[in-house]
Specification:
Number of domains: 1
Order of helices and strands: HEEEEEHEEEEEEEEEEEE
CATH topology: Porin
Strand order of the largest sheet: 1-2-3-4-5-6-7-8-9-10-11-12-13-15-16-17
Strand content: over 45%
Distance between the termini: 52 Å
Shape: globular
Number of helices: 2
Largest sheet: 16 strands, antiparallel, barrel
Radius of gyration: 23 Å
């Protein structure tokens, strides 16, 4: 009788699992291929380089209506970028149109992406390693780490409160991201505040260091407006890191950009980024200033973007850097 009960329970479990598996599953992905040429100031002793690269992404997502009336959304993404494919994104979100709770990584509201208009990549990506957004591990925000968050929809946008048990770490189902580092939290709003054409981002990231670990702070605010074919925006970002009392690095960045949609296929844009560095109370004399122009064109199933950036005092040094990036994007 006991064996029959166990068998019945097992069959019921399989039926339940089968029912979940029958939920509609969406497959998505993209392929990005990039050519980049970097020209560094020869007086700084750096070499100029160029080359090709590619990134592949494939993701699965699904949803289910729960017995309590809430909706569960779940999925994951695999990314291959100069290495074997590995887990990049995962999420389980349970909630309704007003509020939801998620267990996730690399998902949801974040401060890593810019809130001002741009043509595909921002200068922080095109000019890799520059002072703007070169904040170090754990300093951009916590969305790339395994986290728990709550999202509340209102005021024309989404309020996000995120908790990261171990800042800068990710883990698996059995090899979890244990508390090897300090915990962190994010508070973010992204939306229109109810004004058509307006886009606002406001948020902060905090890591309270203990022992030899760093205190980390990031504050970011941006406002952008789209009117017809034009879009403009400004952004302010400040970060602080400290390894010990009296030893603190501060970066203050401002950026502004404008884009113009020539037609439904082609857009052009220009952006300016400026970053000041203060080390233990002493201001660095080399303020990084980057200007970037870009153009994007859609061929239907394929998009291509070209960005050219000129960075003076790259990464707050005496080195100058020019970068040309050409990228194709194919989505499926």
């Amino acid at each position: 009788m006991k064996n029959k009960l166990l068998l019945t329970t097992a069959i019921a479990g399989l039926v339940a699992i089968g029912g979940v598996a029958q939920a509609e599953t969406k497959i998505s992905g993209n392929l990005e291929q990039t050519y980049k040429a970097t020209s560094d100031d020869a007086s700084a002793g750096a070499a100029s380089t160029d080359g090709l690269g590619a990134e592949y992404n494939i993701g699965l997502s699904s949803s289910a209506e729960l017995d309590n009336g809430l909706t569960a959304k779940f999925g994951f993404n695999l990314e291959a970028n100069n290495a074997a494919a590995a887990a990049d994104v995962h999420f389980l979100t349970i909630g309704n149109d007003m509020m939801s709770v998620s267990i996730a990584r690399d998902n949801g509201n974040n401060l890593s992406s810019s809130g001002i208009p741009h043509i595909s990549d921002t200068a922080s990506t095109v000019v890799a390693g520059g002072a703007y957004n070169n904040l170090g591990v754990g300093e951009s925000d916590g969305h790339n780490d395994d986290h728990i968050r709550a999202d509340i929809n209102g005021l024309g946008g989404t309020f996000t409160l995120r908790y990261v048990p171990s800042d800068g770490q990710t883990g698996g189902s059995t090899a979890v991201a244990v508390n090897g580092n300090n915990s962190a939290y994010d508070m973010i709003y992204r939306g229109s505040v109810g004004v058509e054409g307006l886009s606002v981002v406001a948020g902060q990231h905090r890591v309270e260091g203990t022992g030899t670990a760093k205190d980390l702070e990031l504050d970011k605010y941006s406002i952008a407006y789209n009117f017809g074919q034009f879009a403009v925006g400004v952004e302010k970002q400040s970060s602080k890191t400290s390894a010990a009392a009296g030893s603190q690095n501060e970066k203050d960045s401002t950026s502004a950009s404008a884009t113009f949609a020539v037609n439904d296929k082609m857009s052009i844009g220009i952006a300016r980024y400026e970053t000041e560095l203060t080390e233990s109370g002493t201001k660095n004399a080399n303020e990084e200033k980057t200007t970037m122009v870009g153009v994007g064109y859609s061929l239907g199933g394929i998009a291509i973007d070209i960005n050219y950036a000129m960075a003076d005092n790259f990464n707050n040094t005496t080195q100058d850097r020019d970068v040309l990036q050409i990228r194709t994007i194919q989505k499926f």
